[in-house]
Each structure stands twice: as structure tokens, then as C-alpha cells.
């Protein structure tokens, strides 16, 4: 008698970035896809960057709201992305992932630097037995050694780790699956270089593969970003030969998130299990929202007068942030793009939530050596609309446009009517000597610039040093409680010619 193939459905998501408005719909879609399999098993996984501290729910709950959603949605396993690994301290990750959860946390290339071992809440791989199909899952996260080292982690080169773990797992399982928060190019590299991988479920670069890629014997999938799509992979296995008879994937586009009114009007007798799950998860998220709002309502500063911020001109709040970067990093000069600040601050109480709203980017301070010529190049570009109005997405930036440079430690005399790249007439250190084009200066700035984003000459610095775990909004909070720093922020560094007597 011929036995029917064993069946398994794998459901996957990636790069949700705390889009809570979409999570109930995702949970319902997962439930529908599970139900459609009848008695056949399913495996539900997330590929990282589920958390994003730009979200008040994530920030106000310390990530607990995300973990509750993962649990309630029915995930079996997750890996972590850079938004988990680099924006939360190891202690915070221990509080999030340490308690018992129904899902496994898998990350094969992240070790504690003190012990050289995996954290107690995670491991390099996990083997699931799903209806007689043995599935080996390997988790890998993006390789940022300079940043992870400062947080107390040793991060290993992921492709080498994948090679070793595939060798270990392949004899033990029917299906080798990599949960890869590495990006599409690295996924393609692993598929090309490593034998024995059946399936790579990808993330990090937000790639949407409506039809899977196939490289050799490996299938690559990716479900985009923000919960706009979820991924489905259907697996068949011959129970005798243990060979795959089916490996097919696709993505399912999800409808927009329901409004609260639509959710209320759709509730009633006869709702499907999926609809009920959607409504229950929406209610849980709303409960987290109220708790997060309370946590973020705490006062972090009190201002006697407002502090303005603009993207295309110098204003005190931008100067205050530039000065904070200079002070905190021990630099000669502070530089930051005005687009890091979405709005200014009114007089009176400043809450943690308001500070998050105006400075949402999980961006860290940095310090580097730049020549006077490199600094002036960036300052000249800062006067050109093609730079200041440039939209930016990613690399930690959660603003809208680049904006002009806000500075501290410099006095700049410029003619706005001058030709491009010849508008600046003089740059001085404070009110003293002129900036020497050949001399190197210590510049306190932001990590985004070192990645080649925004003002390109600022990515050419030497001896780059990053400062973690503080975000730039943490530095701003410190200085909002410093009356002398606030007073100094009102002195203009950009002096428009002709100078008024």
C-alpha cells in the first residue's frame, strides 16, 4: 500500500517593526491558514525586527506588548533582528525572553561576551517534530560587531555559523530551515555556498518575494515589511524515503488594519475562530496601549520657555542636541542633522512620550576624526535643498527628511545667495581660530552618518567610536534639565552675511 506524503505548512513573518495596527489581522490570517490544513500540522515563525522602539507601545511596555502578541498569535519560534539585539540591553532582553514562552528563541551567532555561551533564553537551533516531519530551525541575526561588542555580546560571522550548524543538523532532520535576519544578498550567498539547506526564510532588507527564489536545492522566501504580507510554505515528505515531495511558497497580502469602529461592528455570534482571535488580540493590544501611555506620561523635564526645531534652519533645540553630542562624546565639535527632531518643545512639562514623539529614532551617538575639509564639505551641502530635503528611510532613522546640519563648537559665516559649494566664507572654532582644512578634529555625531547616509563626507571619518546603549533622545533629555545648556543653545552658530553691526 502506498502511503500518503506527510504534510506541513510553515507560516512566516518578518520586519513587523511594531506595527500593532496590523497584528490582529495577521493573527487572524495565520489562524485561517492553520485551519485550512485540517489535521496536518503547522509551524509559525518570525524572522526578527518584530520590536521597534519608535512605537509608544513598545517603548512604554519595554517590549512586553510585542511578546504578548507573539505568544497570543501562536508563534512556535522566532529569531531576533538588529532592532531587538541593538536597541535593548542584554538585561532587557533577559527580562523579555527569559520567562517561559510557548515559542523558542533561536539565534546561532550571538554569544555572551563574558562567558562565550548562548544566553539562557536562546539557543543556536531547535528541532521540531511536526506530524512526523523533523524540522531543524537555525536562527541568524545581522552582523554588527562594533555595536554588539559595546553591549556585551560577541557576534559571529553568520555564514560560517550557518555552515557549521547545517552540518550538525542535516543528519538529524528531514528539513533544514534558516530563519535569516541577514538580508537577501546574504541569503543568496548561503544558498550558493552551503549544501544541505532546504529553505531560507529571510528578513532585514524588507524584501518581498511574491514567488520564491530557487538557488540549487534551496528555496528563498521573504514577506516584505510591516505586516503587509505574511509568507506560506507548504511541505510534503515521503514517509518511506524521507525525500521532499513538495516545497512550495507564496505570500498572502493582508487587508488594511480594521478601525476600532469596524472591529466593534463586525463582532457578533457566528464569528469564525480567526475573527474571534483578531478581536481578542485587538483588545489585548488596547490594554497594553493604555498601560504604555501611563508609563510614557512621566515627566522627564520642565521648560521655562519653548525650544523651537526646524528642518531647514538653525533653531535652539537642534543646537542643544549638537551640544549634547559634543559634550557626551568628549569631542571638539558637535554635528547632527535637524531632521532627527520632528518638532520643537513647548514650555512646561515634557513627558517621556513627548520626547519619543519628537525624537523617535533609535540612533546612537558616535565620535570620529574628520578633517576640516570634510567638515566644510558637509556644511556646504547642508545649505543645498538636494541634501536637506532628501527623504531617508532605515539605518535607525525614523524621521522624514535629512534636514540641515545643527552644530556646536563652530561659528560659520555664509552667504545664502552664493553659488553652490561656495556659500561658506569662514568657519571658526567657536569664536577663535579658523578651521584648518588639513587638520583632524574630534567630531561628536550620530551613527547614521558613519554608514554613508546623508552627508557623505561624514562617513569618511577615522577612529570611529560608538556609544551604547544611549540613544540621542537620552542625551537630549539630560540637557533639557541643564539651564546653562538651554541658554547656550540660543546663541546662533550660523551667521548670515552681511553681518549686522
Automatic annotation (TrEMBL):
One of its GO terms (cellular component) is outer membrane-bounded periplasmic space. Coiled coil: none annotated. Gene3D superfamilies: 3.60.21.10, 5'-Nucleotidase, C-terminal domain. Keywords: Hydrolase, Nucleotide-binding, Signal. Residues 309-446 form the 5'-Nucleotidase C-terminal domain. GO terms for biological process: nucleotide catabolic process. It holds the Pfam family Metallophos. Belongs to the 5'-nucleotidase family. The keyword Transit peptide does not apply. The lineage of its organism: Bacteria, Bacillati, Bacillota, Bacilli, Bacillales. It comes from Paenibacillus rigui. GO terms for molecular function: 5'-nucleotidase activity; nucleotide binding; UDP-sugar diphosphatase activity. This is Metallophosphoesterase.
Amino acid at each position: 500500500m502506498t502511503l500518503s506524503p506527510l504534510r506541513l505548512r510553515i507560516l512566516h513573518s518578518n520586519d513587523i517593526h511594531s506595527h500593532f495596527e496590523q497584528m490582529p489581522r495577521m493573527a487572524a490570517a495565520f489562524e485561517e491558514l492553520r485551519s485550512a490544513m485540517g489535521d496536518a500540522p503547522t509551524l509559525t515563525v518570525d524572522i526578527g525586527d518584530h520590536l521597534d522602539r519608535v512605537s509608544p507601545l513598545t517603548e512604554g511596555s519595554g517590549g512586553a506588548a510585542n511578546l504578548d502578541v507573539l505568544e497570543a498569535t501562536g508563534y512556535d519560534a522566532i529569531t531576533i533582528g538588529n532592532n531587538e539585539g541593538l536597541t535593548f540591553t542584554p538585561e532587557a532582553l533577559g527580562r523579555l525572553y527569559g520567562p517561559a514562552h510557548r515559542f523558542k528563541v533561536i539565534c546561532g551567532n550571538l554569544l555572551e561576551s563574558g562567558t562565550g555561551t548562548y544566553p539562557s533564553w536562546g539557543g543556536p537551533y531547535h528541532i521540531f517534530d511536526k506530524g512526523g516531519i523533523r524540522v531543524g530551525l537555525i536562527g541568524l541575526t545581522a552582523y554588527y560587531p562594533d555595536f554588539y561588542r559595546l553591549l556585551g555580546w560577541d557576534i559571529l560571522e553568520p555564514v560560517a555559523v550557518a555552515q557549521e550548524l547545517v552540518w550538525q543538523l542535516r543528519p538529524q532532520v528531514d528539513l533544514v530551515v534558516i530563519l535569516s535576519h541577514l538580508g537577501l544578498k546574504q541569503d543568496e550567498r548561503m544558498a550558493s555556498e552551503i549544501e544541505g539547506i532546504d529553505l531560507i526564510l529571510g528578513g532585514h532588507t524588507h524584501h518581498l518575494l511574491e514567488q520564491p527564489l530557487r538557488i540549487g536545492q534551496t528555496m528563498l522566501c521573504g514577506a516584505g515589511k510591516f505586516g503587509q504580507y505574511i509568507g506560506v510554505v507548504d511541505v510534503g515528505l515521503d514517509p518511506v524515503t524521507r525525500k521532499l515531495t513538495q516545497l512550495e511558497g507564496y505570500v498572502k497580502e493582508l487587508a488594511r488594519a480594521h478601525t476600532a469602529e469596524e472591529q466593534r461592528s463586525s463582532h457578533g455570534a457566528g464569528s469564525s475562530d480567526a475573527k474571534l482571535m483578531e478581536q481578542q488580540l485587538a483588545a489585548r493590544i488596547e490594554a497594553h496601549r493604555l498601560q504604555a501611555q501611563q508609563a510614557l506620561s512621566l515627566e522627564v523635564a520642565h521648560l521655562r520657555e519653548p525650544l523651537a526645531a526646524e528642518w531647514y534652519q538653525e533653531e535652539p533645540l537642534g543646537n542643544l542636541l549638537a551640544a549634547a553630542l559634543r559634550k557626551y562624546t568628549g569631542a571638539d565639535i558637535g554635528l547632527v542633522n535637524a531632521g532627527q527632531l520632528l518638532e520643537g518643545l513647548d514650555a512646561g512639562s515634557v513627558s517621556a512620550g513627548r520626547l519619543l514623539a519628537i525624537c523617535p529614532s533609535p540612533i546612537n551617538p558616535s565620535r570620529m576624526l574628520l578633517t576640516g575639509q570634510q567638515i566644510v564639505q558637509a556644511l556646504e551641502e547642508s545649505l543645498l535643498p538636494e541634501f536637506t530635503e532628501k527623504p531617508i528611510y532605515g539605518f535607525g532613522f525614523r524621521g522624514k527628511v535629512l534636514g540641515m546640519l545643527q552644530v556646536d563648537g563652530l561659528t560659520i559665516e555664509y552667504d545664502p545667495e552664493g553659488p553652490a559649494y561656495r556659500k561658506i566664507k569662514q568657519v571658526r572654532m567657536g569664536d577663535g581660530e579658523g578651521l584648518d582644512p588639513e587638520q583632524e578634529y574630534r567630531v561628536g555625531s550620530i551613527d547614521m552618518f558613519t554608514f554613508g547616509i546623508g552627508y557623505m563626507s561624514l562617513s569618511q571619518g577615522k577612529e570611529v567610536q560608538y556609544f551604547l546603549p544611549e540613544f540621542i533622545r537620552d542625551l537630549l533629555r539630560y540637557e533639557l534639565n541643564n539651564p546653562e545648556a538651554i541658554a547656550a543653545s540660543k546663541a546662533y552658530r550660523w551667521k548670515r552675511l552681511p553681518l549686522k553691526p
